[in-house]
Amino acid sequence: MNIFVGNLSYRMQENELEATFALHGDVQSAKIVLDRESGRSRGFGFVEMPNAVEGKAAISALNGQEMGGRSLVVNEAKPRQPGAPRRREH
């Protein structure tokens, strides 16, 4: 199950994100999305959990929880639509 995690602190590290979700089950991967130009966090990421039951439990437990001074937004990631343009910021 691919899980979207939004409103992350810009100081959050991938290992911290993984450890937070690991409290709720097996974590296959944890990735924080970085800005291509600056290399800084964009404030969101994705966690892959192979067990859907554990993934749903993590979503329920972590959505709205405060972490790093910010209230997390956690939900099941929606697949990107084929051919949908990527949002570009200038």
Blueprint (SSEs and pairs):
Layout: E1 2-6, H1 14-22, E2 29-34, E3 41-48, H2 52-62, E4 66-67, E5 70-71, E6 73-76
Antiparallel strand pairs: 1-3, 1-6, 2-3, 4-5
Pfam families: RRM_1
Organism: Pontibacterium sinense
Protein name: RNA-binding protein
Give the CATH level 1 class. Alpha Beta
CATH superfamily: RRM (RNA recognition motif) domain
Mean pLDDT: 92
Structural class: alpha+beta
Q: How many structural domains?
A: 1
Compressed to H and E, one letter per element, the order equals EHEEHEEE
Strand order of the largest sheet: 2-3-1-6
Q: Please report the number of helical segments.
A: 2
CATH fold node name: Alpha-Beta Plaits
3D shape: globular
Q: Just name the CATH architecture.
A: 2-Layer Sandwich
Distance linking N and C termini: 32 Å
Query: Helicity range of the residues?
Result: 10-25%
Spans where pLDDT lies below 50 across 5 or more residues? none
Strand residue percentage: 25-35%
- Extended strand count: 6
The main pleated sheet reads as: 4 strands, antiparallel
Radius of gyration: 13 Å
Organism: Pontibacterium sinense
Protein name: RNA-binding protein
Region (Disordered): 69-90
Keywords: RNA-binding
